[in-house]
């Protein structure tokens, strides 16, 4: 007798870091979000475009950290023709490639929207995934500030359609550029230090930011952060610039900024852009509560060439343990006039906005918590007998033909376990066609939604069993109508 000493290899069941599984609830919320926003995009005249998941690595441009190591920052592989191709890092670089490739045949300006997954080969962490969804709209070929205004109005309309409380905060790269140049700050590294310092205003306040604009700042633990090394005479004007966003109206912010930027031609040009944006968004009905000018918005200014937008989530959210959830930005965009030029050598004006699908889905899931709206299951038909499976499947087909999702329980468990299964599926109702129902031509329906609600009010188990809340027996001809009323309610 021989003995097999070989050990069977069994891989550990685990997800790669930075990648997550999504169940029906999250999928339903993301689907609703994308469908709602896509409808808004189409209402504004944007055309859908789908580009492939892979692009040639050199087409990703600035998103590729090191062309000698094309798998750093992106997920890349070498094709059979020795060219490197990579999973798209975002939806904008593929758009630039598509526009450059098809410019002669496109309507100009070209208005497109797109949605889909993107991949980044970065170190994962809380709230930072390597695969996530984006949902963008862009206008390519218009240098009008009114094109930027339309992106802002579109964003406002999208958040309204989603019933998400958000406010768009708007800045313009020309403003800070102009101010720094007028103050003699022209070194790109020093300018980047200024941007980083301004971005800390919410955390450290004006005094802390003043330190970061100057020599540096030591925190409570003793750690020292080197500052932007601005001369003392330049620090206060930068603070005045950032704090100009404290006005209640867009026109009020413009008035404050005009005084700060009086000696900057580029800053004045940026103010003119914002004035035209203000006129356009006001004409489109965008209120001061929905969009405001804020010179403290600096994220993305290294990339954008003009106006920049950031959507701020305004509602306080708590998780199922009662902890406050910091949602932060739930979308953003701006003007990027240099991207298409990588392919053509000619500057092509462009502006766009992207909804933060992952963060919005997280917010909507918290808002919808307990409502089950994102994970509603099908009507479940209880299986009592193998010999009557045909009856069950026939009724399931009848329900599907009436537009009602339905399934027959296909396990081998008893009645109690089947009802528990239906409840775990968050099914609106369970259908019972037992021996008595078959003889009498009836159907017993248990309204599970009503049962869940009533369960919160009944503490006596005996009363619960005897009352059978939400359960009715009807002639089979009336069953579909009754089930529709449950689902639609």
UniProtKB/TrEMBL annotation:
Protein name according to UniProt: Histidine--tRNA ligase
Pfam families: HGTP_anticodon, tRNA-synt_His
Subunit structure, interactors included: Homodimer.
Recorded family membership: Belongs to the class-II aminoacyl-tRNA synthetase family.
InterPro entries in alphabetical order: aa-tRNA-synth_II (IPR006195), aa-tRNA-synth_II/BPL/LPL (IPR045864), Anticodon-bd (IPR004154), Anticodon-bd_dom_sf (IPR036621), His-tRNA-ligase (IPR015807), HisRS-like_core (IPR041715), HisRS/HisZ (IPR004516), HisRS_anticodon (IPR033656)
GO cellular component terms attached to this protein's record: cytoplasm
EC number(s) given by UniProt: 6.1.1.21
Catalytic activity: tRNA(His) + L-histidine + ATP = L-histidyl-tRNA(His) + AMP + diphosphate + H(+)
GO molecular function terms attached to this record: ATP binding; histidine-tRNA ligase activity
Domain of life: Bacteria
Broad class of where this protein is predominantly found: cytoplasm
GO biological process: histidyl-tRNA aminoacylation
Keyword Cytoplasm: yes
Annotated Aminoacyl-transfer RNA synthetases class-II family profile domain residues: 17-378
Compartment(s) where it occurs, according to its Swiss-Prot or TrEMBL record: Cytoplasm
EC top class named in words: ligase
Residues binding L-histidine: 90-92, 120, 134, 138, 299, 303-304
PANTHER family in alphabetical order: HISTIDINE--TRNA LIGASE, HISTIDYL-TRNA SYNTHETASE
Matches recorded under PROSITE patterns: AA_TRNA_LIGASE_II
Keywords assigned by UniProt, alphabetized: Aminoacyl-tRNA synthetase, ATP-binding, Cytoplasm, Ligase, Nucleotide-binding, Protein biosynthesis
